Amino acid sequence: MTVRVPSKINLHLSVGDVRDDGFHELVTVFQALSLTDEVTVAATDDPGVEVYGEGEGTVPTGANNLAWRAVQALAAHVGKSGDDPKVRVVLRKGIPVAGGMAGGSADAAATLVGLAALWKLDIGRDELATIAAKLGSDVPFALYGGTALGTGRGERLVPVLTRHTFHWVIAFDQKGLSTPRVYGEIDRLRAEGDPPRIGSHAPVVEALSSGDPRQLALLLGNDLQAAAVSLRPGLRRTLRAGVNAGALSGIVSGSGPTCAFLCSDAQSALEVAAELSGAGVCRTVRVAHGPVPGARVIGGDDAP
Ligand code: ATP
Predict the structure, then answer these.
(1) Less crowded by CB within 10 Å, the N or C end of the chain?
(2) Which CATH class is domain 166-290?
(3) Distance, CA 302 to ligand 1 centroid (Å)?
(4) pLDDT tens string 273-289
(5) Where in the chain are the domains?
(6) Ligand 1, atom 9: nearest CA belongs to which residue?
């Protein structure tokens, strides 16, 4: 059973104060992008995880892999615990690892959807989302995709109406950034001074329903950007280079270091990507569009 699953960017990411459980209270607008991973799950006598593509050789293949944690969580949920589940998971990664685009979460969501089909479970997306939320804050969004407002740790979702396909250029940095480190840095910056915080999400939601990329471009905002740039100062140059190449605006995606550039249309995105590739400010450049659907089966017995 093979499942395609989107990456996410945060069009708006407002980070509140630290809660008693150590997480920050977030208000975020997610958009699912066509930069995807493909995850194949199969019954086997030789259980485990294989990783190809982005991050091959650096992503853990043991019990720490989020996809494997999804196997165990779903097995426990349906009473298949006991021996290790007899499942092989193959990840073909297009989403940058530790890039702020929730690649690991995407793989966990895809594994839940793939296994539900493989095991012919009578289980809806909302029930899968309950298991997903326990695996990580970004896992439920990867199940639903589209565009959504996320609150809490980002796991409480409400769909947001969008009237347009938006075109993006994605710049991968040389290496990843640890999400906990970036949150630690925003706490440090806030303890030292008071870096500006982005305002309400309401104007972004309005711009999405109007479908005008120029209006949306003015409103992209990420409270974690200052922290990511503080840890990786070269991102300033990347963000400038994207706008100089013709993007409407650029933003650090989530906890970074990946940068996302909003373009006026598909043709402009191709031109910006070509110019940015030559600018020498990042490792890889991709074009993507959004919103796209969440994790869905594309191959295997139940494929559409
Ligand atoms: P987020 O935006 O949700 O914070 P991210 O996109 O920055 O996440 P991921 O690619 O999800 O980061 O991975 C973060 C870390 O999780 C990696 O450094 C890796 O060690 C570990 N990891 C576990 N499982 C996976 C997986 N399936 N794919 C990628 N990384 C994984």
Answers:
(1) C
(2) alpha beta
(3) 28
(4) 999 999 999 999 999 99
(5) 2-160, 166-290
(6) 98
